[in-house]
Amino acid sequence: MSYCNFSIMFIISYKILLLIENLMDDCCTITISQQKGGSGKTTIAAHLAVSLSQMNKRVAAIDIDPQGSLSRWHGIRQERYGNGFTGINLISKAGWKVQNEIFSLKTKYDYIIIDSPPHNETDAKTAIRTSDLVIIPMQPSPTDLWATDNTTSFCKQNNIPYQILLNRVPPNSKILPTLTKNLENILKTTIGNRVAFSSSFLDGKCITETQPNSPAAKEIKELVNEIITAIKIIKSGQVAV
Ligand SMILES: Nc1ncnc2c1ncn2[C@@H]1O[C@H](COP(=O)(O)OP(=O)(O)O)[C@@H](O)[C@H]1O
Ligand SMILES: [Mg+2]
Q1: Would the CB of 47 count as within 6 Å of ligand 1?
Q2: Ligand 1 binding pocket includes 43 (Cβ within 6 Å)
Q3: 163 phi/psi in degrees, rounded to 5
Q4: Is the CB of 42 under 6 A from ligand 1?
Q5: Is any ligand 1 atom within 6 A of the Cβ of residue 197?
């Protein structure tokens, strides 16, 4: 190969690499993580994915929890809306394939939402390390608070921005101010304890679809907007973890 051909090949490869890097930069990966089971990870992952898709964003969701609740919910969703018409590309993955999967999706989607298993397992750690933002759902109880420590410490060690989402908050919760007084990075939006979340979920749907004008749907919309704003700040490099 002549020197001239080699230079052209080099420039083309470099440009392609830059293009891929730009595409990857445009994508945002959000992992929903919390050591405690039942804190609302799957519920929040599904609602975030559906809401973003309702905003015409290209959304992939990865279920890395061996329990597979998000995948089961998506299976029902496919029956309701038809294969390929759920608004979300759901991928079920575990083990060493997780990281490769995330990287290959980054060039094709605006958002990748990852639902992770309880306990800080290897896959959950991999997902956190490759994320732009980690959302940690926490119910207002001492055991949820203690379980949260592990995830926040792991995010801090790895320089990954995180936000705590207070979930299933009862009205006028007296314990909340005491529980949260030493917590950093709490989202302003809180999610109430609402049965409608479960009923829409059973039908493969989300509350913004089944009851779009309900208080629960309003909370989810506020949550999504707050998360989008947080991501803009993170991507602009103005955030200190
Ligand atoms: N804000 C909420 N209000 C009422 N029920 C909720 C709420 N968030 C989650 N749940 C319910 O709590 C249970 C556990 O939620 P889930 O999302 O499966 O938690 P995780 O994935 O962390 O184990 C489910 O039955 C779900 O419907
Ligand atoms: Mg779950």
Answers
A1: no
A2: yes
A3: -135, 135
A4: yes
A5: yes
Question: 99 and 126 in contact (C-beta within 8 Å)?
Answer: yes
Q: What is the largest CA-CA distance in the chain?
A: 76
- CA geometry: angle 167, 60, 147, nearest 5 deg: 30
Could you identify the residue written with the tokens 């592990």?
150
Whether pLDDT at 18 is above 60: no
Domains for the chain: give ranges and CATH numbers: 30-235 (3.40.50.300)
Residues with CB under 5 A from ligand 2 (ion): 41-42, 69
Residue nearest to atom 14 of ligand 1 (CA): 38
Q: Which two tokens stand for residue 102?
A: 């995330």
Give bridge partners of residue 123 from the DSSP assignment.
none
Taking the CA of 39 as reference, the closest ligand is 1
Per-residue pLDDT of 37-63, as tens digits, reads 999 999 999 999 999 999 999 999 999
Q: Look up the pTM and report it.
A: 0.90
